[in-house]
Design a protein that fits this description.
The chain is an alpha/beta fold. It contains seven helices and 13 strands. The strands form three sheets. A seven-stranded mixed β-sheet has the order 1-2-3-4-5-6-7, covered by helices on one side. A four-stranded mixed β-sheet has the order 8-9-10-13, with no helix packed on it. A two-stranded antiparallel sheet has the order 11-12.
Length: 239
């Protein structure tokens, strides 16, 4: 895997399902999401290409509880000693004390969902390991140790506790699965527990001043991300 630099201190670690992002901090690195179970060796190998040793990983931010985002968190914590941060409402689903709510699928989404699950099964994806969360994130919070201010936004709808990270100084947005891209355009991420709430969260993100959108699924928006989000039509996606 070749890390793709998409902003001054941000790299995409591309995966077939669920990209991971690495961010250079003041004294190390953070990961935003961790890929499906079994991804840890590939993540660590990609970080090594950036000159990042396992002990340099300080934080693992999980945007929500779905296994293509939390799947390798436990293995990466074991390898790095990093702290895990996640939205407060998703913490019980991440640490395994409660089952996460299933998505409410449209007919179009159901076809995609079944195809994704079949692909993961065919690939021999190992079972999910739950992981304790060290820091619960709330709307309006900030993150310590980053090279620039980071604003936490609670963006429910995809999951109850989904969070996005906004870096106003550099215009970078980590939207979690609230936003995906298809053929270079942003769309509402599929597989939501509450579609209308997810659309409202999408519109909230679209109102931000953003240049680069680091989506977990699809190609990143490298320029004019905010304008592209405002021009999007999430109300009609996946119908």
């Amino acid at each position: 895997m070749e890390p793709l630099q998409i902003a001054a201190a941000v790299w995409q670690l591309p995966f077939p399902v669920g990209h991971v992002h690495a961010v250079r901090l003041l004294d190390g690195y953070a990961l935003v999401d961790t890929g499906v179970p079994g991804s840890a060796p590939a993540v660590l190998a990609a970080l090594e290409q950036l000159g990042c040793r396992p002990r340099d990983v300080r934080q693992i931010v999980l945007t929500h509880f779905h296994p293509d985002h939390t799947g390798s968190a436990a293995d990466l914590v074991a390898a790095t000693g990093a702290r895990v941060l996640a939205g407060a409402q998703d913490v019980p689903f991440i640490n395994g004390t409660a089952p996460g709510p299933p998505p409410v699928l449209t007919p179009s989404e159901r076809v995609v969902h079944e195809r994704v699950l079949a692909g993961l099964a065919d690939a021999g994806t190992p079972p999910l390991k739950h992981v304790p969360v060290d820091v619960e994130l709330h709307d309006g919070g900030t993150l310590d140790g980053w090279a620039e201010p980071v604003r936490v936004l609670h963006v429910p709808g995809h999951t109850p506790g989904a969070v996005a990270l906004h870096l106003p100084s550099s215009g970078v947005l980590f939207p979690g699965d609230n936003v995906a891209t298809v053929e270079g355009r942003p769309v509402l991420g599929p597989f939501n527990v509450d579609r209308e709430t997810a659309i409202a969260s999408f519109r909230r993100l679209a109102a931000l001043e953003v240049e680069t959108v680091c989506v977990p699924h699809g190609e990143p928006l490298l320029k004019g991300g905010g304008a592209a989000l405002r021009a999007a039509t999430p109300e009609s996606d996946w119908l």
